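@channel sequence for tomorrow's demo:
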Amino acid sequence: MYQIIQWSSDQQVYQLSEEFSLIKADKDEWGIYSSVYYNSEYNGFFKENVYDFHLQRDPFWIYKGEQRIGGVVIAPNVLYLLFFIPPFHEEFQVVTLLKKALLRWSDPSKPIIVYEILQDHVDFFSRAGFWPDEFRCKWMQRPTELYALNWDEDMIAIEPQLAAENDDTRKLINSPDIERFFYECNMGSIDAIRRKQESADCYKDMIGSYAYQTNELTLAASTLVYDRQSNRLIGACLVSWEGYFPAIYNIGVLQEYRGRGLATNMLKKALTMLKPHFPILRLYVMQGNSAESVYYNLGFKPGPLEVQRFHLPNK
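structure tokens (generated this afternoon):
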């Protein structure tokens, strides 16, 4: 059996077998190939994407001998954005070699995760022994548009604000209330089960991270809705950045206030505020989430379904 060398962030070439190797790629060139070959249906949905903004890690070309046959982002315990260049058709052999490399490089106390597996690769990873998450997700998008917004008289709609910043930290004003709100919205929901969000504390990191993924424009497109009488937070829609485009970070309405068009109004507000600046708004939704019908009814178009994660369980 061919012995794969140990992982190093400085290593330029990894020999996976006598035939196949990984060679570190230029991110810009690799992104162009990825935007064509990653998946034609998926890339047709994200028409403008070359995946440079996704690449916190170095990408690699996959070679068979002297022929470039694909690309992947791979590092200890993680793999994503695997693609193959036609007419190559030995995909399963490459997936098994990548699995062997991951087993060689990864921390055995942690699972090995493969992210966002599209339908044309699901069978390869399943046959290689990776376990799929039970949840299927998809991106949705629609053009931004100007709407006349009408809020019920018993509701107050405001924009979330960042607290005064220092050099090290950013946070939302009233972030504990917003954390508690999303916990109350999602208790027992399919989304909360998927994310293992079993207590209010689980939402601290989510809201904390949001402060670093937003700015004045996306805050202006976001909404916090309060009950005028009780001053209780009853609805929230947070808009952030996904690459170069705005996306819904999280949206929710308390159970007893649902069915009154609050989520639709908050999405219309985001579409209206973003219209002068961006052509589209995106969101990511899990299949079976009750909010799907709201998105469809407002004209959001779904992209291809994906398995959010495959994993090899840690020992």
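heads up for whoever presents: Residues 294 and 303 are 16 Å apart (CA to CA).
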